[in-house]
Amino acid sequence: MDLISNLSLGLSIALQPHNLAFCFVGCLLGTLVGVLPGIGPTATIAMLLPITLGLDPSTSLIMLAGIYYGAQYGGSTTAILINLPGESSSAVTAIDGYQMAKRGRAGIALAAAALGSFFAGTVATVVLALFAPPLAKAALKFGSPEYFSLMVLGLVCAIALAHGSILKATAMIIVGLLFGLVGADLYSGAQRFTFGIPELSDELNFVSVAVGVFGIAEILRNLQNETDRDVMVKKVTGLWPTREDFRRMAGPVVRGTALGSILGVLPGGGAILAAFASYTVEKRISRRPQEFGKGAIEGVAGPESANNAGAQTSFIPMLTLGIPANPVMALMIGAMIIQGIVPGPNVVNQNPELFWGIIASMWAGNLMLVLLNLPLIGLWVRLLTIPYYLLFPAIMAFAAIGIYSINSNPYDLYTLTLFGALGYALVRFGCEPAPLLLGFVLGPMLEEHLRRAMIISRGDPTVFLTRPISAVLLVIAAIVLAVVLMPSVRRKREEVFVEED
Amino acid sequence: MTFNRSDVGAGAIFVGIGLFFGLMTLYGLDIGTARRMGPGYFPIVLSGLLVVFGITTILKGIGHEDVERGPLPWRGIAILLGVPVIFGLLIRPLGIAPVLLVTTFITSFASRRMSLIVALLLSLGLTVFCILVFVMGLGLPLRIFGPLVEPWTRPIFGVR
Amino acid sequence: MKKLLATLSIAALALLPQVAGAQTYPERTITMVVPFSAGGPTDTVARLVAEAMSRELGQQIIVENVGGAGGTVGAARVAQAAPDGYTLLLHHIGMATSATLYRKLPYNPLESFEYAGLVTEVPMTIIARPDFPADDLQGLIAYLKEHKDDVTYANAGIGAASHLCGMLFMSEIETQLTTVPYQGTGPAMTDLLGGQVDVMCDQTTNTTSQIQAGAVKAYAVTSPERLEQLPDLPTAAEGGLASMQFGIWHGLYAPKGTDPAIMERLSQALKVALKDKNVVERFAALATKPEPEENATPQALKAKLESEIARWKPLIEAAGVYAD
């Protein structure tokens, strides 16, 4: 069978010493830069892209891919340690990961993330090697009606994400959706809520919003408590998951991997939903849903696996069709072009050593990442013992540089201030930031696909029900909504909410 | 009258945001119809929903006991919200080195535990670290010294 | 105290080393602003040219991505930058079209810049979903005229190359199709490959690999001659649309008031860069060519800009689409 010869071709490329070395350097740099607060994977890759350009094409892409996983893992580390997600998927990790850290279980959360990611990465590599072309073809069946229905499902999941009041969580999603609309309207060119400022005519910067509602609000909360008690929990109870932890992780990791592998293939933003979907599923089927939001290991292991699997399979549309699934993949395509390789359906035939080399190196990269990061956990956890008054000025400095460096746009910093204020006020009034962030990410896509579906169908709203995939997704969304709103479930939630206050 | 300030406060913010977006849409954007949606269609639906949710949240809070919350860290709020603005305003004219030095120094004093010496050392150390990593190491397109201070720093640090 | 400060700053200003001048230029890192995000076709062109120019000038040129508002944010940034030759702008045809697309521009394309030269002109290709009925350009036009209410045309957003090309194409064939905008070329291509939309016209940068692989149907290229990379693809003129000649041209600019000697030096370096082996090869992979030496000059760029502003103004006004 071809697969074996293809994979051995790939391995022969990926295992060349200099490729291994650059893969390692990529993982290391990605982790180190990605772990800086406020600097997520996209910014990390944009920053590190130029240093890969001098290498030959395979090596350069192998290193870039390494940077990508490294940055993702680094981003999750920051989310767990200081509640600062650098991209939408690690916003989910922050929910329970940070709670675990607060309870002295930071090491276990990091280990769960690393091991879950490794498992997911390994499986996703096999998926990529086996099914890349057919999966890419299948993904093309997704048109705007299907994406719209998928986003609706995602929003319903976002409600389930909240562990407090459903009412407030839903309102927070709408707030996020509204702010997601700021900028020039794609269809008419009309400026929406930009006050005529050209710098605002693209969407608000995600990192500004995330650091604002999560990061600044968190720093302020910690400063508020500074006088009466220690901000960070110093006592760390063990770095390594117990047998019980492993038992609780296994299911979420497997389910998260499956979800992530499937959603990651969709070029229209499916990977974004993977972590959220995984969290929702785990919370729904868990026998201890009340622990979610308070440091449930399932809430870290599942989404992290989904996230990593999705990151991996989002290479499928890029490598097989030349289509970027997300901003990171767009950067990869730019890098390939500068290397003289035009991404497209022919890459697998014309540059098999590149195609299979990258796939094989993904697995090598994941292995290196886990080997690199498990020993580093101790170091990361020790970071928590740095006095908070030394830590938060550093957080602010890195965040400011990270945000500014993306587009050299000072308005991105003003946005940070706006969302810091809004986030702090809302969090103080008992709202949760994660649904706002999901709404913010999904808002533009929801509207874009809805309006495009209506244009293509010539204003016929039944397309959402007559196209089978779309109809199935809407039915699932309706079921999830019904479950979420079921009175008994709701009462239980309210109890949880009261307890917490 | 007793009311839960969390609910009423959050509800009021929701209503405020809803009204803000709603009014801006009504007075500036074409709404269109469900079949041919204009740029204002989505915003008007969402802001309407948000106002409804906001009012519901307020009503839910009335008649419930309030919960105790700590005092507001005013100094921290003013500093943390002001620093990004300072950074944004000064980064182009001054360059990254002076801006980091100033903003980190100010940021430090959001904490009551900070002393002058520690703040100075911290801002100096962080500035050097960031320049080494981001400008020299990663080659980000940031001027170390912007056009406003360059004439003075040039004799000391040379052309950057 | 205030007075002292004032005196001091005046003194300092007087001591300000006078613009070291064109003789020693360049003596520090140059920033090349690309008014679009990293990874796109313009960014790629800029990085390739910047790298080659760096070698010629002996100073590093770093690319800074200042995206936003169809390239106007980055252009405005450069228009307001110090005219010292250390801030450059690499912009494409949008420099000319934004003059009409945006009714309130914070700069004037013809007055706020100095010109170094033309860089490259990327041809456009007219393509359709793989199972589209028509087989050649004439067939396509006939089909579009007959089924104009059913056919959808994809573009990558207002002001994008595909939007401009669509405007020109529809005006040439005097047929209005339903336009479906996307957030960039990637998603538009995805939907074209999947058959969700019907027709598109985009830069060879984005389409060549798809055409070569047979993943889309191609009808014509808008360059004066056929492309080496796509020898079987006729030009629009061969297909009977003689006036459908058009490409995404890129130019290199500096802020108004930059020393003419510096502009001359930049134009010189650009000429060398455009002959660089690596640049030529990489451009060829994108099915485009560097501009010949006589076009890498301030005069050629200025003339191109003027003629293109005049060409697009009536088209955009007729379409009635504005970006603000």
From TrEMBL, chain A:
Name this polypeptide is given: TctA family transporter
Transmembrane parts of this sequence: 20-39, 108-132, 147-164, 171-190, 258-281, 321-342, 354-374, 386-406, 418-443, 464-486
Keyword Mitochondrion: no
Keyword Zinc: no
InterPro entries: DUF112_TM
Keyword annotations: Membrane, Transmembrane, Transmembrane helix
Source organism (scientific name): Chelatococcus composti
Domain DUF112: from-to ranges: 20-438
Pfam families: TctA
Automatic annotation (TrEMBL), chain B:
DUF1468 domain span: 10-142
Pfam families in alphabetical order: TctB
InterPro entries referenced in this protein's UniProt entry, alphabetically: DUF1468 (IPR009936)
Transmembrane portions of the chain: 12-29, 41-62, 74-102, 114-140
Record keywords, A-Z: Membrane, Transmembrane, Transmembrane helix
Name by which UniProt lists this protein: DUF1468 domain-containing protein
Lineage of origin: Bacteria, Pseudomonadati, Pseudomonadota, Alphaproteobacteria, Hyphomicrobiales
UniProtKB/TrEMBL annotation, chain C:
Signal peptide residues on this chain, from the entry's feature table: 1-22
Keywords: Receptor, Signal
Entry annotated with the keyword Signal: yes
Domain of life per record: Bacteria
Record-stated family: Belongs to the UPF0065 (bug) family.
Name of the molecule in the record: Tripartite-type tricarboxylate transporter receptor subunit TctC
